[in-house]
Amino acid sequence: METLLTPEELEIALRSIGAERYHNRHPFHGLLHGGKLNKGQVQAWALNRFYYQSRIPMKDATILARTEDPDLRLIWRQRIIDHDGNEGEDGGIARWLKLTDALGLDRNYVLSGDGLLPATRFAVDAYLHFVRDRSLLEAIASSLTELFAPAIISDRVAGMLANYDFVSPTALAYFEKRLHQAPRDANFALDYVKREARRPDQQHAVLQALRFKCDVLWSQLDALHHAYVAPGNIPPGAFDPVRLSAMDR
């Protein structure tokens, strides 16, 4: 990029990346929301997604540690509270564990990470490294996938409640909170990026950061689809719903 975009043009470019690359377009989500997965496949999704959820406050703590602006820290730290909870109130991580509980997964097993797909771990850890190693502007821009979250959350809740008798509104409580939290966080980050990306190279870096984050989310679903939808591809040591059912009998 050699031409400086206006803030409005930059926002249009960011939203076009989401329209093309956000993981709501992945076939696995079509199966999940359309009731085409069995319980074991939904368990695999929830188990692997927990690793991502558990690393979000670590990512946000890294951003806090990197900024010298107390006003930015004051606003950004709310993200950690949203996920970790505060003063007896459950956060997003605890609510996600209620989902894995409702799906019949042992909580200690979920917390251990023993059943993760290797690609899940690599993708999520790559995101943490990106936030640690790239510029603060790029780190904040990578969170802009939240711009596109409300639509997928609405589809997920409606689809799962309509199609799976093993899912309840209580089990999906995580998503109800995110319908309000994600737009708040995304709007703040978007305003920051539009204000602070003042040069063409910075704007290019911002766009690349959002592409990278979309790739992180997409690659997790690629791994789930390969392992649990296509037969015979579960890696050694990863969660195996068939084997788990046999052990329970």
From TrEMBL:
<keyword id="KW-0560">Oxidoreductase</keyword>
<dbReference type="Pfam" id="PF03070">
    <property type="entry name" value="TENA_THI-4"/>
</dbReference>
<comment type="function">
    <text>Ring cyclization and eight-electron oxidation of 3a-(2-amino-2-carboxyethyl)-4,5-dioxo-4,5,6,7,8,9-hexahydroquinoline-7,9-dicarboxylic-acid to PQQ.</text>
</comment>
<dbReference type="InterPro" id="IPR011845">
    <property type="entry name" value="PqqC"/>
</dbReference>
<dbReference type="InterPro" id="IPR016084">
    <property type="entry name" value="Haem_Oase-like_multi-hlx"/>
</dbReference>
<keyword id="KW-0884">PQQ biosynthesis</keyword>
<dbReference type="InterPro" id="IPR039068">
    <property type="entry name" value="PqqC-like"/>
</dbReference>
<feature type="domain" description="Thiaminase-2/PQQC">
    <location>
        <begin position="13"/>
        <end position="222"/>
    </location>
</feature>
<protein>
    <recommendedName>
        <fullName>Pyrroloquinoline-quinone synthase</fullName>
        <ecNumber>1.3.3.11</ecNumber>
    </recommendedName>
</protein>
<comment type="similarity">
    <text>Belongs to the PqqC family.</text>
</comment>
<comment type="pathway">
    <text>Cofactor biosynthesis; pyrroloquinoline quinone biosynthesis.</text>
</comment>
<dbReference type="InterPro" id="IPR004305">
    <property type="entry name" value="Thiaminase-2/PQQC"/>
</dbReference>
<dbReference type="GO" id="GO:0033732">
    <property type="term" value="F:pyrroloquinoline-quinone synthase activity"/>
</dbReference>
